[in-house]
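ok so heres the complex, two chains, lmk if somethin looks off
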Amino acid sequence: MLLEEKTSQEQAFEPLIVAFCCNWCSYAGADLAGTSRLQYPANVKIIKVPCSCRVNPNFVLRAFQKGADGVVIAGCHPGDCHYSTGNYFTRRRFTLLMNMLDFIGIEKERFTVDWISAAEGSKFAAVMNGVLEKVHKLGPNRKMRDKRWKR
Amino acid sequence: MEKIAAAVRERAKRALATGEVDRVFAWKRGEFWYDVTPAVFETADETDELLWDSFCVANLSKYLTGAVRQGFKVGVFVKGCDALAFNQLLQDNRISRENVRLFGLPCPGMVDPEKLKKAKRYRGVRAVARAGDVLALQGKHGEQQVEAPAYLYDKCLVCRHPNPVVYDELLAEPQPVRTPDSDRFALVNELEAMSAEEKFLFWQEQFDKCIRCNACRNICPACSCEKCIFDNGESGVAAKANADSCEEQFFHLIRAYHVAGRCVDCGECSRVCPAGIPLHLLNRKIIKDIQAIYGDYEAGLDPNVPAPLATYRLDDADPFDGHQKGGKK
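and the predicted structre for the whole thing:
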């Protein structure tokens, strides 16, 4: 191992979490968490999407490649989708993707899907804290990292 | 099999001579005795070259997409797995049923030349004849008879549909379904039982072999998009970057995912892979999950049943609601 690499590992590990939040529920939930002054880590980078089903599996893999240690997809509760049915498709698609990531040896804990409504600011904070804690335990994601990518 | 081959040739000749179809898609001899290649026949005279033997493994259904789009009426020979592929293409609106004449061929399972090679049965062979499950390898020094099942493709050993599920006319007696020695998900189960580290090492070793030739994509009857994400130079995943294993990982995950719920498990992806990556395992993992979570569904059996990822149910399993707070119950 290179000396440089070693020292960078010894530095405190600050996980990077990418959260895809649906515009109608989870993004508003994040907003509520903010205005309610709830504590959630600054390591979470939120990407707003019109609906959780807008998230393509490519996005998830890309996020992992380009530096994310964990990825979260947050959408409206099933039944509450602004577009009526979007999150039902999310549910099927990402159930399969989650199993697939597990199948090729990516830890399941790195990828989370959760339903967070606009009124659930506290749940948003809880989910993000939970993910961060799990990813912290797992350490940096090396398995899917694009080696050209430098933090 | 030779008798059926004669009937096949005869039928193709008649179809072309009477103008029943403009083209016939079938197989002809390639360079070597084990080398059978898909071929297009346009006139009745050409059909003398047409053949049906133990190496006609190539799936012809996918070639239909281009010909049917050009407005040709095409006659095509389909084995069991090709018929599933045909149905899948039909469901994906890639071909129209009325422009295709389907000649069904019950398939006794195709012989894998690699297996013959490994068993050292390869040398000096000039031709292979077949009667039922007995292969006659005809060489310079006479004939050798071997049991066919030992040399069939792995995918043929676990075949569920040796007889075409859709056809206009069947050209031979239906074949009995083989009882496989092992479940087709046996290897998937084995992999699932490994630890994350082991699984990762296994797949990384496999993906590292990938040369990004796109053969798996091109052969796949479910991969029928006219524009493919992997042809987009802007996508960043269009070609191989040698230094980066992540590109292969991305390619293979997305390739398998794009055919999720539409893969007919014909196993062609693994067969054509020049690097020998067991790609079908990724597809089978998805098939297994779909069957376990969303109930029995087999792609290609019935084009009118919606694909599992194109539909949903209100009471689908929800692996994500660990918190059980809020939302409609």
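quick notes: Confidence is low (pLDDT under 50) at residues 324-329 of chain B. thats all i got rn
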